[in-house]
Amino acid sequence: MSAQQGRSPVAVAIIDDHEAIHEAVKVWCARADPPIKVAGGYFSAEEFLAEQPPGAGHTVVIFDLELQSRRSDFEGLQRIIAAGYRVVVYSHLSADEIILRCLDLGAVTYLVKSEGKRHLIDAVEAARTDEPYVGPQMAGAIVNDVNFGRPKLAAREREVLIAWFQTESKDLVAQKLHIAPTTVRTHLQRIRAKYAAVGRPAPTKSALVARAIQDAIIVVDDL
Q: What is the DSSP annotation of 205-219?
């Protein structure tokens, strides 16, 4: 991936209970183009949240869903997202229902560890933007959850999408719905990811409007 002008360097925090994963991700980040700063490594969600003020210091959190308890830590994931962080779940778990639940909770991307370095680096770069990143397992889970090529949008995703069509900025959407601007961006990113996964990409606002009209989410008179 080549350096992109005008963007500040991305930084990540790693939450994983295996030291080998920490070391591997650090090497991958150092070799990325441009390099990705690893701002901290943690072995649990609790350790991370205890040391980090809400929303400060990191652009992206790489989060292993199954930590020392051997249980899927959905609560920890939810707390990290609620604190204002953009989360890439990076786990060996590949069940569709787990992937979809993490996306519903607000993770911007879900990657299975077997998908490797290239997917993780690309996902980290995409996570700080409005552009979606869809790995193979995430794509499969989304496709299995939709009918006839129409993505299954959550009620809140539909609400954010319609509000965005009817306003001039994501900040105004946030004010209208009483949520953070970062939450608006996350919802829009997931909506784009769902459309991309079913072969109907919508990289721009106008493209999303067209998809929403096609899928009867909104009508022209509502715009």
A: HHHHHHHHHHTTSS-
Instruction: Give the integer Cα–Cα distance in Å for 104 and 125.
Output: 21
Neighbours of 68 (CB within 10 A): 10
pLDDT mean by block of 10 residues, the chain; 223 residues: 52 93 96 91 93 68 85 91 90 91 88 94 86 85 70 89 91 93 89 87 86 82 70
Summarised one tens digit per residue, pLDDT across range 84-110 is 888 999 999 999 889 988 988 888 899
Report the C-alpha gap between 134 and 27 in whole angstroms.
23
Tell me the domain boundaries of the chain.
11-144, 155-222
Q: What are the backbone dihedrals phi and psi of residue 53, each rounded to the nearest 5 degrees, phi first?
A: -70, 150
Separation between Cα atoms, residue 80 and residue 89, nearest integer Å: 11
Contact 30, 49 (CB under 8 A): no
- C-beta atoms surrounding 159 within 10 Å: 16
User: By the 8 A CB rule, do 89 and 114 touch?
Assistant: no
What gap in Å lies between CA 85 and CA 71, rounded to an integer?
Answer: 22
Run of H or E including 20:
helix 19-31
Supply the CATH classification number for the domain 155-222: 1.10.10
Contact status, residue 65 vs residue 73, Cβ threshold 8 Å: yes
Does 3.30.420.270 match the CATH number of domain 11-144?
no
pTM over 0.90: no
